[in-house]
Amino acid sequence: MRRPIDNGRFASVLAGRVFARGFVAEGVRSAPMNRQTRLVARLLAIGVIIAGAAVLLPHVLDGLQILLRALRHNWWLVVLVGLAVWVLLALGKKR
User: φ, ψ for residue 61 (rounded to 5)?
Assistant: First the structure.
C-alpha cells in the first residue's frame, strides 16, 4: 500500500513502520497495557534474566548463597526495610 508522506511524494508503507509524520501501517496495532500488565511483564522479564544468569553463570549462585546467609542473620533488618517501603507507598497513594 502506498500513502502520501510529504508534498506529494509517495513511499511504501511496510507493516510496523512508523514515519516522522505519524503514519503507521494499517492493521498493525499494539494492545494498550495497563499498570498491572506492565508490572507482570517486568517481573517476568526480571525472573527470566535471573534464571538465565543462574544457568549461564553458576559461580554467581555462591555469592547469592552468602547473601542469603547474611539475610538469615539480619532478618529484622529486612522486615524494617519492608515496613518502611510499605509506609512510603501507603502515604504516597492518591486518595
Answer: -65, -30
Contacts of 21 by beta carbon, 8 Å cutoff, 6+ apart: 5, 6
pLDDT tens per residue across span 4-36: 555 554 444 444 455 555 555 555 566 677 888
pTM of the model: 0.38
Nearest to 5 by CA among 18, 25, 23, 24: 23
DSSP 19-86: -TT--B-TT-------HHHHHHHHHHHHHHHHHHHHHH-TTHHHHHHHHHHHHHHTHHHHHHHHHHHH
Residue 1's pLDDT is: 54
